[in-house]
Amino acid sequence: EALVCLQDVGKIYPNGTVAVQNANLLAGEGEFLCFVGPSGCGKSTIFNMIAGLTGHTSGSLSVMGTTPKEARKRSEMAFVFQEHTLLPWASLIDNVTMPLTLAGVPKKERKAEGERVLELVGLKDYAKVLPRQLSGGMKMRVSIARALISNPKLLLMDEPFGALDEITRQTLQDELLNIWHQNKKMTVLFITHNVFEAAFLSTRVVVMTPRPGKISDIVDVPFPFP
Ligand code: ADP
Ligand code: ADP
């Protein structure tokens, strides 16, 4: 049973822009799937549809056996974006446990889980620190920790390392792979325009190619990595 299933999915924005057309994709448990393609080919749109943040306008789309909007409510799906979305006035532990706070999880349990995920990203000594005291790479680690706190089955990452310098990017790629290797049941969908990053990280690469003035095709390319 596929975790994410797109059948002939299309998206036309209200202003008439055809962002995605006839997209077909199956993502199974434990896949690390990278989406590559030039800017404007519809990568973020596909993600936002899977995430339940925007609707599709044709075809059918299911996530973990239900609609994306329903899947999102179940907190089995987590997101990481390029711009960190940390609360500036909250400590790292408060930031990473925010999803649990919103879900009404008791404080003691939140603290233990917060410490667990901060350790996963190498920030266990920074629990009380505020985000502004951190470098870009460290802020990204906090965003990843927050996404992991509810043990998601599906992790969606939209150009997470796009704003980082090359060295930091490579370090975070290694760290992300380590985390994924510790929990191989987690499915990761990762957007990047960097083919090297895609080849390094993924078990499978989805190449999205724009046709001039038109639409995008999705082609699954089996890669001999890693
Ligand atoms: P990518 O992530 O690959 O850069 P996007 O999914 O962001 O591609 O965009 C695909 C196309 O849809 C682009 O032509 C973009 O300008 C357009 N688009 C994206 N979001 C919207 C929106 N909210 N309204 C109208 N057009 C949009
Ligand atoms: P990305 O970096 O993922 O390609 P963009 O910079 O293209 O994203 O878009 C940033 C935001 O602007 C997104 O929320 C997207 O939906 C929206 N957007 C992009 N293109 C358009 C457009 N042509 N009209 C309206 N909104 C757009």
TrEMBL record:
Range within the parent protein: 22 to 247 of 271
Keywords assigned: ATP-binding, Nucleotide-binding, Transport
Entry GO MF terms: ATP binding
Protein name (database record): ABC transporter ATP-binding protein
Keyword ATP-binding listed: yes
Domain ABC transporter: 4-226
